[in-house]
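RECORD CONTENTS
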Amino acid sequence: MKRSVGNNRLRLSRTEMYGAFWLFRILVIISLLFPLLSSAQTAEQQKRLDSLLSINQNYNQFDSVKVKLLIEVYRQYMRMKDVDRVEDYTDRAIQLAQQLKLRNFAAITYYRRGLFYHGRTNYVKAEANYVSAINEYNQLKDLDMVAGTYLNLGAMYANIPDYAKSLEVNQKAIAIYEKLGNEPDLASCYTNISSIYQNLGKASQSLVYLQMALKVFMKDDNSVRGVSVVYNLIGSAYFDASKEELAKMGNSNKERLQIALFNFEKSLAIAESLKDNGLIASNKRNIA
């Protein structure tokens, strides 16, 4: 016997209708408040900018204080994503810092402007500013910042992708971190290089650097997450390896999945102990 369409309509209890009513009201309130909150944040940013511009305009000495004011102004423009003003005030800060021989302020400004353009995927300008930052930090003999800037360049080149350049600058960072005895950042370099080789389909070479990274991370109690990340990457190296690469790694195609699973499970166990949802999800996807 056929039922009319009307008889098939969903019927809600009073409790369900009451809950649905309040859920609707909450969603309406959120939709009304969100533009207000966004507008309030914009107004607060503009208020801070106006205050900084006023202080800068009224400060007439061209000294280190003036440089610091210019830095605060361009950082606020960075938060507001005003590209033209960022360019203007970073230029002013760099020019005055160089006149006053305050190289550290010029260096950090080049570095931040590099990050700013890197984030906006303007890689040409990001590269130019990173290179200028490296030159300044070399003059200051601040090797840690030189290496850190090389790491940023390496990440940028990998995104382009220009793997040859990425490998080159990562190797430069490695040489510096070895000299400084900075093992945690050294391990990060190894991990970056392993990812490059993985993207190039060279799993055997990727594995070499992953094992180097794992050795460093396992010595440091504060690098437990690094251990989990490396196990995950080792699993991927085996899982994605071609027969030719597996042969170089000393394994057969039959062993590939077993070794990959072993590493994914080790990574998952650590990730669960850390409650790291991102790593947990990544490993579960790989295991499934």
